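Table S2 (text version). Query chain:
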Amino acid sequence: MKSKFAKFVDATVGAVLIFAAATAVFRYFTTLDLAMFAASCVTFCSVLMLTFRSRKKSNAQKLSASADRMFFDFMFENDAAPARLLCRGLSEKGLSPVVHGRGVYVGNTAAFAVFDRQLDDKTAARIISRTKHYGATKAVIFCKLPPSSIPDIDGFTVKTVYGDGVYRLYASLGALPKHKYDSKRKRKFGAFANALGKDKIARYLLLAASMTALSVLFRHSITTVICAGVCAALFVASSVFNIIKAAKSKRRDDER
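Corresponding structure-token output:
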């Protein structure tokens, strides 16, 4: 997922480009002041719609710290661990589950876990085939991320649970894996380093040029001039940072 700073840069560049394009179009039909006002309204509505769409997508894929730790712990277990722990938890709740391979069967329902990749049609089809082989008519698939797609089979029901929903279920059954390893903490200035990443150079250059154009359009308004200066400084800083990083990497390769 993108960092907050990266999202800010993307939104800013997008907003500036939309505003500049809208202003240029409206300028043909009205005065500059009215054109900028209309362009501001168009930009605001566009950014608002994109923000809601991005937030909806982000919330769908967002994991809590506890859920993320659970999936991290499962990486160090064997493939049958999710089914084995789920079976044990269901048994303690008074049910009579049966494990076949990586699936847990209770009555006409089977449960499978797909934590190592995003669920796609092929994987879901194999799970459905496996489920029907043992006489079940419903499959519940636990995933880390939302599935990309699931085949629609007549007379068969497929339900997916992902992210925090998986954690809540496993926690309620006491089926969480043992916590053995901790992920390495990110560097203190890791976010700053990402903000000066190689992929940001072109964005800062484009943003600086757009802000410069707007400063001319607004007759060198102090706000747009400052923004243009900040964007230009970020462009220079990211360029220098990546040049130094590349030089250090080359030096390490030569020493080996």
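Notes on Table S2: The chain is about 60% helix and 10% strand. Residues 128 and 139 are 7 Å apart (CA to CA).
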